[in-house]
Design goal:
Mean pLDDT of chain B: 89
Helix content of chain B: 55-70%
Shape of chain B: globular
Pfam families (chain A): ABC2_membrane_6
Structural class of chain B: mainly alpha
Number of strands of chain B: 0
Oligomer: heterodimer
Largest sheet of chain B: none
Distance between the termini of chain A: 41 Å
InterPro entries (chain A): ABC-2_transporter-like (IPR010390)
Number of helices of chain B: 14
Largest interface: A-B, 38 and 40 residues
Keywords (chain A): Membrane, Transmembrane, Transmembrane helix
Order of helices and strands of chain B: HHHHHHHHHHHHHH
Protein name (chain A): ABC transporter permease
Organism (chain A): Streptomyces longispororuber
Helix content of chain A: over 70%
Chain lengths: 273, 293
């Protein structure tokens, strides 16, 4: 029991430490909030034009579409879909060989970075998400849920989304064991994250087979699923089904990460010098 | 080295560069240094060729995603804000090319905040080369050609697919628009860097005007609220990058009540913006007081 609770305390401390690390840069956070808000305004107007032209597009009315925009800006940093997460740090540690230090710590590499990324995401959700969302709600007509349970349900979907996002970026970071300079892989992953999470346009608006494929890919767990939970599209068993979808991707990708981590630490010689 | 250092004050934050006499000679010297530093970074980039090819392609694809989003929108509608796909592609291609060129040449200035924070700007101050040239060429990223390429491709597509009532003036307007637009965005990068001397951690604010401006101008002005259009016309004049000259080429009325000749003012606006940014840069550099640690 004591070992287990000690482990938990360790990872909680890692998460808390990383939360504080990001919380230190207050001016940077304010600047980021400003930028998220500006982008929210620009996107909101393009969505208004789009939904004026085609009311009910993708099953959203205009207020729901605008809610989607602001939710996207609020979750953008927490999901780290466009970068800004731990992966650049870990890749740098792999490139310099510092990862050797991480490997002989009495903690699991994947769990360590997951805890640290959860701490970061928690800060970004609060520090970067709340203010743009409030601004959006004040300036535009949004469709915010009345039921507090919907807010809670969304929070769980966001948590699962962050874990999926972490699992994806962990794979990206591990690629540095083989490539050393993982910048290209990271960029491709941020690209996929931006596009397939629905950050540019809701995945329901994607036409035909592209839409179906995009909704089945893991990135849809980052924004599309939490947004649809927030907008009340999934309730009852439907809600359980989307949670299962997110959890399944999280489990599969985390397992793949473990496998790759095992290969990397057995086969690859750590850089040094 | 002794001669080079002779007539320069050594305190950082004082006159940073006092080499050749006269502003023209200084500009020439700055450009030469910029070219040399840039060439060095290109050689260094080419040491990791695979990574360069991947990042350049990723850059092209990443910057093209906005356009894919527009294409996806047009899979559902025929017009947006009263504009067809070809017309929006024209505005998009123009602003992407101009912003891409500014980002390629001056985009590294975003990193100034870091140098101010950790004090490595001091190193640049003691070199006998204009600081602006050094900061602009610092870690020159050739992969940013991806955005320029992407913008030119979309512009070519737009010119091929849109019915434009060509006149010699409209033909002339295209290069004029791209060059002035580059100048306007370049001034935003320099202004942003000057701002970072004061607010080191706030570098992301400048993204609102660079990347945000780029996104805004991809769509026609009819999409946005009047106050927003007024703001980017009169206050932060990025509307002169592609909206005013571009709408003239497309034969569309500008939503604000402006005389027709305003469409021809982008070069003057770019010049004024660059002059203003230059003054701000000097003020910022003079206020620099290293880290003290």
């Amino acid at each position: 029991m004591s070992v287990r609770s000690g482990r938990f305390r360790l990872y909680a401390a890692v998460a808390g430490g990383n939360f504080r690390r990001f919380a230190t840069y207050r001016t940077a956070t304010l600047a980021g909030v400003f930028t998220n808000t500006v982008f929210g305004v620009i996107l909101a107007y393009t969505y208004i034009a789009l939904w004026d032209e085609r009311p009910g597009l993708g099953g959203y009315d205009q207020a729901q579409a605008l809610t989607y925009v602001w939710l996207g800006q609020a979750l953008l940093m927490a999901m780290a879909a466009m970068g800004g997460g731990f992966e650049t740090d870990l890749m740098e540690r792999i490139r310099t060989g510092d990862v050797a230090v991480d490997l002989y710590r009495p903690a699991d590499l994947q769990a360590w970075w997951l805890a640290s990324d959860l701490g970061r995401a928690a800060f970004h959700l609060l520090g970067r998400g709340v203010v743009p969302m409030i601004f959006g709600a004040l300036v535009f007509q949004l469709a915010l849920p009345d039921d507090p349970l919907t807010w809670l349900a969304t929070l769980l979907a966001v948590l699962l989304g962050v874990v999926v996002s972490f699992a994806l970026r962990y794979l990206v970071a591990l690629s540095a064991f083989w490539l050393l300079d993982g910048a290209g892989v990271a960029q491709v992953s941020w690209l996929a994250g931006t596009f397939f999470s629905g950050l540019l346009l809701p995945l329901h608006v994607f036409p035909g087979a592209l839409g179906e494929a995009a909704r089945a890919l893991p990135w849809s767990a980052l924004l599309q699923v939490p947004a649809d939970v927030f907008l009340g599209r999934h309730t009852g068993t439907g809600l359980l089904a989307v949670y299962a979808f997110q959890a399944a991707w999280a489990a599969a990708l985390l397992a793949l990460g473990r496998l790759l981590q095992g290969l990397a630490t057995r086969r690859v010689v750590v850089q040094g010098g | 080295m002794a001669e080079l250092l002779r007539d320069r004050e050594t305190a950082p934050g004082a006159r940073a560069f006092d080499g050749p006499a006269g502003p023209l000679a200084r500009a020439r010297e700055g450009l030469r240094a910029y070219g040399l530093i840039t060439a060095m970074w290109i050689r260094s980039t080419m040491a990791y060729r695979t990574s360069f090819v991947l990042t350049a392609l990723a850059n092209l694809a990443a910057t093209g995603l906005d356009f894919v989003a527009i294409l996806l929108m047009f899979s559902q509608v025929d017009r947006l804000g009263g504009y067809g796909l070809g017309e929006i592609a024209f505005l998009y291609g123009a602003v992407s090319t101009a912003f891409g060129l500014a980002d390629l040449t001056m985009g590294s200035m975003e990193r100034l905040g870091r140098r101010v924070r950790d004090g490595t700007l001091d190193t640049l101050l003691v070199r006998p080369v204009p600081v602006l040239a050094q900061v602009a060429a610092d870690r020159f990223a050739l992969r940013r050609l991806g955005r320029v390429t992407q913008g030119l491709l979309v512009l070519a597509y737009a010119l091929g697919s849109t019915d434009i009532d060509w006149t010699p003036l409209k033909v002339l307007m295209i290069p004029l628009m791209l060059i002035s637009g580059t100048g306007i965005f370049a001034s935003v990068f320099v202004l942003g860097a000057a701002f970072q001397f004061v607010a080191q951690d706030a570098s992301e604010v400048q993204n609102s005007f660079t990347y945000g401006g780029n996104t805004l101008l991809q769509y026609p002005p009819t999409v946005f609220a009047q106050e927003l259009v007024r703001g980017v016309t009169y206050v932060v004049p990025i509307a002169f990058v592609n909206w005013l000259p571009g709408l003239y080429v497309l034969g569309r009325p500008y939503p604000l009540d402006l005389p027709a000749w305003v469409a021809f003012t982008p070069p003057a606006v770019a010049f004024a913006c660059l002059a203003l940014a230059g003054l701000a840069w000097r003020a910022g550099l003079r206020s620099y007081r290293s880290t003290g640690s």
